[in-house]
Amino acid sequence: MKVKVLLLGSGGREHALAWGIAKSPKLDKLYTAPGNPGTAKLGENVALDISDQDAVWEFIQSNNIGLTVVGPEQPLVDGIADFLEVKAHPVFGPKKQAAMLEGSKEFAKDFMKRHDIPTAAYEVFSQNEFDKAAEYIKKQGKYPVVLKADGLAAGKGVLIPETEEEALAALDELKSGALSGAASRLVIEEFMVGEEASVFAICDGDSFRVIGNAQDHKRIGEGDTGLNTGGMGAYSPAPIATKEILDITEREIIKPTIDGMKAEGYPYQGFLYVGLMITSEGPKVVEYNCRFGDPECQVIIPGMKTDLLEVIYSCTTGNLASTKIEFDEQYRCTVVLASGGYPESYEKGKEITGLDEVKDALIFHAGTKEESGKLYTNGGRVLNIVGSGNTLKQAIENSYSEIKKIHFEKAYYRNDIGAKGLKHLE
């Protein structure tokens, strides 16, 4: 039996998921809402407002959709999975309460505390208690210190001031600046020393499978400098995530998370992103995401040899434990080609050329639009160029040799994606 699939989202992550789903012999037709020019080549884009749950349901009914896959975090935190489950419609993604692992930093920290999951020490303050927060920071006297807006902030809600002066300025920014909406409550954490990596699991509410690991590069500047972004590149697998680290992560972090969710009455079904800090004491949780990472998705999904649609569907029916998942043994590196000025102000509408010259890398669209047969920039992160190889060095070289073929005005990318991984292999 073939199934019609509705994929919600429009970024690089969704293009990678669409690419994986479109290869399935079990797919009847793929719709992506709202999609991008990349997903349009794999199915049909739909001009749906994915925040309008009634409109999504109307489309599902009128097009005989058999499965809905939710890409981004906002619809999940808004409860789209709950809404569709009530309609008895198969949906892949955690329900609203489970999605609070990402939707509220305070919820996630308290959950980890209840279930003895290793993470940084923390305190929580409401926005009208920022004077108390300032006193707390001064009293601790430890820098850097980590300030996290409690709510969703598109990957930009974490500030790491290195002095008391910077910390007090950051509090002012969180209270009245662009992040104030997400920072109605503030989590202050101790700064963990180590190297970050991400581990990904797919879950059906009862069981889970680890499906890969990666290392993202959040900062806009080379050498991990400058402002935080949604991610400027990633590679997989990450050498820092050794077998010992992965075994500990699975045993002491992922399993207690899935078991804890189930025990508290909201089984976790969907992709689970576990952001780790590899410290001298072992891996500790930096953050959870209730969806696949972006751009980490772009370097993990292409390595899956198993039918992605079949695996996703098995999660919605509770049959993941009996589903075999296989991956190839290639390294992959994605470099994000961004608009100049991102993550602050940038211009859209710049014509993109050279994509037809790229032969040895996958291209996943993120912020693009197509008009009259021409491609233009339409966001901060524009394209993901994914190279692969038998070694990490080969994967990195393939990404950079291909990205040089793509051009648009004020295009920007980092030149050091994957360099940290190479150091571990020297």
Key attributes of the depicted protein:
426 residues; single chain; D-amino Acid Aminotransferase, Chain A, domain 1; 9-stranded antiparallel beta sheet; alpha+beta
Largest sheet: 9 strands, antiparallel
Q: Which whole number gives the mean pLDDT? A: 94
Specify the CATH architecture of the largest domain. 2-Layer Sandwich
Task: Tell me the β content.
Answer: 25-35%
The residue ranges in which pLDDT falls below 50 over 5 or more consecutive positions are none
Radius of gyration, in Å, reads 21 Å
Decide which structural class fits the backbone. Answer: alpha+beta
Overall number of structural domains: 4
Q: Find the CATH superfamily of the largest domain.
A: ATP-grasp fold, B domain
The shape, in one word, is: globular
CATH class of the largest domain: Alpha Beta
Number of helical stretches of at least 4 residues: 14
Count of extended strands: 23
* Percent helix range: 25-40%
**C-alpha termini separation:** 49 Å
- What CATH calls the topology of the largest domain is D-amino Acid Aminotransferase, Chain A, domain 1
